[in-house]
Amino acid sequence: MTTFDLSPLWRSSVGFDEFDRLFDSVFSTNNKGASYPPYNIVKHDKNIYQITMAIAGFDQDQINISQEGNLLTVKGVMGNDREEDKTEFLYRGIANRNFERKFELADTVKVIKADLKNGLLSIDLEREIPEHQKPRNIQINTDKLLSA
Question: What average pLDDT score do residues 71-80 get?
């Protein structure tokens, strides 16, 4: 695995401690089962995003979506059905397992709503730019000097 030395970045920056942790988590290879369930992240507008996860076989009451700080967690827990124990599968291609998927959100991104339809879980997100970070025009004052 390739390692990255970020120490030159820390010499000229302040307040980016979270970046180091995020960078490590993105490039870690210890994520077992990280490919399930499959998902898409779509940018619909400048500040509107959507995460769509393919979770076929899960009901709404088997899904838990939570946000703690900047971490969005989606968990799916399959129930143990007695009916399923009697079923003999000739081929089983639809995953029937629990999952937990985590997404790191920026400080300004908040969850708007979540919908489950046709086996797809859609989570709508919006980036809200704080007033002090929005672009603004600065007026230039021109004081005319009066000569006597």
Answer: 88
For 140, the 3-state DSSP assignment is coil
Per-residue pLDDT reduced to its tens digit, 89-124: 888 887 778 999 999 888 888 899 999 999 999 999
Output the pLDDT for position 148: 54
pTM (predicted TM-score): 0.66
Give the span between the Cα atoms of 106 and 120, in whole angstroms. Answer: 24
Q: Report the phi/psi class of residue 35: left, alpha or beta, with left for phi > 0 and alpha for psi in -120 to 50.
A: alpha
Output b/e per residue, 133-147; b: 16+ Cβ within 10 A.
Answer: eeeeeeeeeeeeeee
**27 phi, psi to nearest 5 deg:** -95, 5
The edge-to-edge listing of strands for the beta sheet with 120-127 is 39-43, 48-54, 120-127, 109-117
Q: What are the chain's domains?
A: 33-130 (2.60.40.790)
The residue-averaged pLDDT of 66-73 equals: 91
* Angle subtended at Cα 122 by Cα 58 and Cα 47, rounded to the nearest 5 degrees: 160
86 token code pair: 């009697």
